[in-house]
Amino acid sequence: MLDRQYDCIIIGAGPAGLFCAAQLAPVRVLVLEKMVLPGRKLLIAGSGQCNITHAGDVKSFTEHYGDHGAFLRPALMAFPNTSVLTYFEGRGISFVEKELGKVFPASLSADDILDALLDACDEAGTEILSYTPAEMVSFDDGMYAVKTLHGTYYAKVLVLATGGKSYPQTGSMGDGFTFAEALGHSVAEPHPSLAPVYVSDHRLADLSGISIPGAAVSVWRGGKKLFVRFGDLLITRFGYSGPVILDAARWMRAGDQLRIAFSPKKAEELDVLIRAACTASGTKQVQNLLDDAGCPDRLTKQIVKESGIPEGTVGAQLTAAMRSRLVGNFTAYPVEIDHVGDFRVAMATAGGVMLDEINKKTCESKIAPGLFCIGEVLDVDGDTGGYNLQACFSTAFLAAQRIRQIL
């Protein structure tokens, strides 16, 4: 048993697990990774470019984690975005800020971040066993036991850094939720986050690839508006994506109705604009009177068609009913969600280990002393823009601080 006994075992060699391990020297740490190589999901972050964090004021970060940002406040304050950049800059990596405050390594390669984490773990004396999936965890007589195909390993401290269920091909299959439940924790039902939506009767499929900056999208359920979000919208061949959809996907469900404002103008403003254009240029075709609606030409032409306006209709022929439908489709185009993208396409997982069972100042379990939950295994998911990786590093930092105190 002694050769398989460690001070701390970390399950999961993703960004949270590796960063936590790197902070623990001279503690004897074992990291168990189910995949052949560590960091598989990190390598696809930001389409392989690794949007590592966001450049905004860290005090505003809590607004970007759905309903659970308050839990992360101590972690974010203890190890903010500036600390993440300083840490990796100290390991020879420089960074660039791109659109909307997203921060990437200057090389635009996630490999550089993973290599830095692995080098740090090597320097800390961390032992990493790849292709060694944890099968079962238990606690007895002050020690955690982790059973694998290659044997059982023991430690006083156990860290669950297994991620969620998104991109299961990278190894994120929800194992950590099962382990947490085995040790007495409750788990909020996991569901996809940062996912595109697939819609029923997708009449704009031919416009796939068109992006609408600053679109407004409201979500309705049972005839009641749940919320409205603003951001860039992407029309896809199956439905809709882009930050405004991805960030709100955590709250969307099959059967919900989206009402999309393609035009930046309010309905009343657009109605006045169309009336004035018809009066000033009544012999022009309707689609040619809508340049000021703020939409791409192809989308404008399709919206005119969707509004039941016959091809060739000129401004002077536009009836009040036609104009009403036109304004409605530009400012509240209705589509029904068939389903939200599943874990194979979702970039993050909503749900996870219940936060009221975790000490937010240490990420240690309130139920099982010496058990820590960090990163996406927690019931926390962030918006696009680097917020999820930031949460991984910040929660890992808090856990490492506490682990050094108790070992």
UniProtKB/TrEMBL annotation:
Residues 191-346 form the RsdA/BaiN/AoA(So)-like insert domain. Transmembrane segments: none annotated. Its cofactor is FAD. InterPro entries: BaiN-like (IPR004792), BaiN-like_dom_sf (IPR023166), FAD/NAD-bd_sf (IPR036188), RsdA/BaiN/AoA(So)-like_dom (IPR055178), RsdA/BaiN/AoA(So)_Rossmann (IPR057661). Signal peptide: none annotated. Residues 7-401 form the RsdA/BaiN/AoA(So)-like Rossmann fold-like domain. Keywords: FAD, Flavoprotein. SUPFAM superfamilies: FAD/NAD(P)-binding domain (SSF51905), HI0933 insert domain-like (SSF160996). NCBIfam families: aminoacetone oxidase family FAD-binding enzyme. PANTHER family: OS12G0638800 PROTEIN (PTHR42887). This is NAD(P)/FAD-dependent oxidoreductase.
